[in-house]
TrEMBL record:
GO cellular component: mitochondrial matrix
Catalytic activity: beta-nicotinamide D-ribonucleotide + ATP + H(+) = diphosphate + NAD(+); nicotinate beta-D-ribonucleotide + ATP + H(+) = deamido-NAD(+) + diphosphate
UniProt subcellular location: Mitochondrion
Species: Atlantisia rogersi (Inaccessible Island rail)
Protein name, UniProt field: Nicotinamide/nicotinic acid mononucleotide adenylyltransferase 3
EC number: 2.7.7.1, 2.7.7.18
Entry keyword Nucleotide-binding: yes
Pathway membership: Cofactor biosynthesis; NAD(+) biosynthesis; deamido-NAD(+) from nicotinate D-ribonucleotide: step 1/1; Cofactor biosynthesis; NAD(+) biosynthesis; NAD(+) from nicotinamide D-ribonucleotide: step 1/1
Cofactor(s) needed for function: Mg(2+)
Role noted for this protein: Catalyzes the formation of NAD(+) from nicotinamide mononucleotide (NMN) and ATP. Can also use the deamidated form; nicotinic acid mononucleotide (NaMN) as substrate with the same efficiency. Can use triazofurin monophosphate (TrMP) as substrate. Can also use GTP and ITP as nucleotide donors. Also catalyzes the reverse reaction, i.e. the pyrophosphorolytic cleavage of NAD(+). For the pyrophosphorolytic activity, can use NAD(+), NADH, NaAD, nicotinic acid adenine dinucleotide phosphate (NHD), nicotinamide guanine dinucleotide (NGD) as substrates.
Key words, A-Z: ATP-binding, Mitochondrion, NAD, Nucleotide-binding, Nucleotidyltransferase, Pyridine nucleotide biosynthesis, Transferase
Length: 173
């Protein structure tokens, strides 16, 4: 929602800028780009293991899953041992919006997942060569994915947007 709303806001700013230009300042290029302004589609990129979490009881609200797959869509990358097509066929909701779910089959299987990285970090294991050094530095600097930070956050609802003190409203398309 955040990125969608920001994209809409920027598109509106651009359209107002072009509208407010004096006719002599407007170029043919401006009017063509204004007429053909299209908001890029946003999709949630995930691994097949993430898609499988949609059927975990009490993990997701059905209306959230519906909003994701109906309004935005998914690009789901295959993982060894996961069958995203089966997850979709087993879910009435995912089946209904399967036209908005794109399955990507990796030619070379990569068994590394973000979940596995987080679990390794939480146990104090090295993730060198699995993620970029800049990511490792960021994680260490902010003391995240450690046993201590997990205990501190236990029971908390983690919402990244609360850092921005932004109220996010459902889309009204």
């Amino acid at each position: 929602r955040h990125h969608y709303n920001e994209s809409l806001r920027l598109l509106q700013v651009m359209e107002k800028f072009i509208e407010n230009k004096q006719p002599t300042e407007r170029s043919t290029e401006d009017s063509i780009s204004y007429q053909h302004s299209v908001l890029p589609e946003l999709k949630l990129l995930c691994g097949a293991d993430f898609l499988q979490t949609f059927k975990t009881p009490n993990l997701w609200k059905e209306e959230h899953i519906k909003e994701i797959v109906e309004k935005f869509g998914l690009v789901c990358i295959s993982r060894a041992g996961s069958d995203p097509a089966q997850y979709i066929s087993e879910s009435g909701l995912l089946t209904k919006f399967q036209h908005n779910i794109f399955l990507v089959k990796e030619w070379i299987q990569n068994e590394i997942s973000a979940t596995q990285i987080r679990h390794a970090l939480c146990r104090g294991l090295s993730v060198k060569y699995l993620v970029p050094d800049s990511v490792i530095s960021y994680i260490a600097h902010h003391n995240i994915y450690t046993e201590e930070s997990e205990q501190k956050n236990e029971g908390d609802l983690l919402r990244p947007l609360k850092l921005h003190k932004t109220t996010v409203n459902p889309l009204n398309d």
